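FAQ
Q: What does a multi-component entry look like?
A: The components come first, one per line:
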Amino acid sequence: MSADPASLWALDAATLGAILAMAAATYAVRAGGFWLISRVQPNRFVEAWLRQIPGALFVALIVPALVAGGPPFWAGGAVVLGVRVLTGNLLASLIAGSAAVALLRLAGFGS
Amino acid sequence: MTEQVSFTRQGVLAGFLATVPVALSIFIFGLVFGIVAGQKGLSALETVLMSGVVFAGASQMLAMELWHQPVPILTLGLAALIINLRYLMMTAALKPWLASLPPWKAYGTLYLIADENWAVSISQMRAGGCDAGFLLGSGLAIYSFWLVASLIGRLFGAVIEQPERFGLDFVSTAVFVALAVGLWRGRGEILPWLVAGSVALLVKWLLPGTWYLIAGGLAGSLVGAWRDVR
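Then the predicted structure of the entire assembly, as tokens:
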């Protein structure tokens, strides 16, 4: 936490190796999905599948997170949904939802 | 949508601006990563390098969990690969935009794909957007916030105590809830979304890591596709 130059500028070879390994692995999957699908002969099923991926991934991400967050997250999710549908404003829905979560925790609900 | 996909500077700017509200959640997450990286003994330079070169929040946090001396390079690379397998599906879904770009633009932009800018961009694509520059701008917004937040977190440590007190741990989930609204196209979504949610819950309970995302996303999308072409 001090201004010790080593804590600022040190670059360890093994750390750099780990960074490069992680970057290569991550870019491989980032580029790989598009690369693979570009080589698949497009057909009706593949096209339908690609259209279904976003919604399914969103839901797979949202549901476990909401369940794990307990009642404050459930209420927060409802608030986000409501504000977003009614106003269409993304930022407003995020602020309202987070505020709802914070308030419910202050009131003693959930963790 | 697929006929005329452009890639303009205005598109990049629009994508950047549309993603700034979402980048807020990234900023909090980046602060936390910077703080943890400092605790694990990474220098400020190493912290910024990891955020700038790897640019994948969940796998960077996981790497900090697994971090010890000597640094387990192979394990960290493998862990990053597994936790990020969802990108295979995410970038496949971007085909309508990427397929018509010159490869260097497509594969350059792919470097900047993260959950949040993918979500914002796929919503834009769904809404009929046909400027793939949006994807790059959206990625640049997340990238810059992530990089700066990691550095601030690393340098100034615990400036923000207990982000959960302000409900900030909810922001990243909120982003996806809000954007899911734009993906809803009617009652046809009920079956695939129900399958995706149930399978994700079940697998999260059974398996560690982010397998639940891949399992839920695959199950839901395959059921939906099967129903659509049947």
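Q: Is there any commentary attached?
A: Sometimes. For this entry: Chain A touches chain B through 76 residues (CB under 8 Å).
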